[in-house]
Specification:
By secondary structure, this protein is an alpha/beta fold. Helices cover 36% and strands 19% of the residues. The protein folds into 3 domains: 303 residues, Rossmann fold, CATH 3.40.50.300; 117 residues, Domain 2, N(10)-formyltetrahydrofolate synthetase, CATH 3.30.1510.10; 83 residues, Formyltetrahydrofolate synthetase, domain 3 (Roll), CATH 3.10.410.
Length: 558
Amino acid sequence: MSYKSDIEIAREAKKRPIQEIGAKLDIPSDHLLPYGHDKAKVSQEYINSVQGNADGKLILVTAINPTPAGEGKTTTTVGLGDGLNRIGKRAAICIREASLGPCFGMKGGAAGGGYAQVVPMEEMNLHFTGDFHAITSAHNLLSAMIDNHIYWGNELGIDERRVVWRRVLDMNDRALRDIVTSLGGVANGFPRQTGFDITVASEVMAILCLANDLSDLQRRLGDIIVAYTRAKEPITCRDIKADGAMTVLLKDATQPNLVQTLENNPAFVHGGPFANIAHGCNSVIATRTALKLADYVVTEAGFGADLGAEKFMNIKCRKAGLAPSVVVVVATVRAMKMNGGVAKADLGAENVNAVKAGCPNLGRHIENVKQFGVPVVVAINHFVTDTDAEVQAVKDYVAEMGSEAILCQHWEKGSEGTEALATRVAEIADKDESNFAPLYGDDLSLLEKVECVAKRIYRADEVLADQKIRNQLKEWEDAGYGNLPVCMAKTQYSFTTDPNRRGAPTGHSVPIREVRLSAGAGFVVVICGEIMTMPGLPRVPAAEAIMLNEAGQIEGLF
């Protein structure tokens, strides 16, 4: 049996005008700022007007560690949102925007799949409403103004060796990781070593996703530490006088984007920090707006629960005063078999023992999420090669863990395939049994917070940090930043810092390579192992297969 590709299904979508989608949430058409006919931004004025509304129930979708077999977290998020609407609930979806880097690199699109997609798929995976371009421009405006300040006399006394603000680009380009700028003589400034990160790792991206409104955005931008003097006194974006112009560039980008699912249900798509190198959640503005307009809001956090869910709970919920009612952990039979030692080429054959051998990875995530005091349901994202015995093995294992696993067929059937999951999730959310709390308090030292995540989430024995890193953390504590949470930058493929160690390993160490203070965003980034904040393209990038066909349609986006 042959199946249509995601892009073929998306092309056949019977989209409704975006004003009709807004009307489902009672958003007046004059408060929708349309980008074409099928996407719009929601005005800040309207968002301000609904702040007195009661909040709906917040449902987080997360997953096991990603494998080449595929898990389908975004697909499940969309399918669950459609399923809730199917059973008569007023539900909205909140997901992140796609980065051009992985679209042209390895991952492909980020709008769901099969019959559980958000559309317009091509625009969402390319330029969309220009938010990432605005973030890139605002970030690099600050870079330009720092170097310009030094060039024209350096009134602030910036130590050129201690400029910590790097540039960004929304593309995987390893050649830009470490560079030297200002070569070519006096007219071009003072040569110094710097580098590029990918836009999704920018502190400006994190700030946009954590800010409450424009004034909070400008305050946070002003707090960014960009450099230090020779006396190690911090220089901020506000000192450079760039915060006002950056806010102007981000004025429209802060307004959430409204689009629709294939079943014409509302979806907010806003912000896009990666979860391996950044905090991995869509914007607070979008989530809060959805909670004021819908009775149930389904959102996702990137990669596995050891990264996205941990940061959703410890950073986003802590900062925004949010609390999830239930967490859905996505798993697949295929991924369980890969964790159980089966090669990708052999995943089609039934292997119940391998499923059982791979389930501890899922079990670890269930245990970890429960540490936050939130009920957990497992969604088994169905593949056509799954056998009844393999599915039952996962269900039995999850039952032993004190949770329940529900088979979902949304990729093939849309909302019809998630009715059971939607019904159960709504039941649990309505019981109000969540006792959510972050994993650690603000008063722990920064290193203790790192150790808490490493030991309780990754199940590591120790954190390896040399004296230079320990001294840096202590300096930040002495400067008043000790109350900040930590944002762990770590490989998504394993609980360890070794991407090849699948399953549920113990007895490992977490080496810290670097720490960065994001004073505006309000967290400390802890870079572990070999993780890169500027990814590279694979040997055969997805870009090689992306093109326009004879009909002028885009081919090659997943």
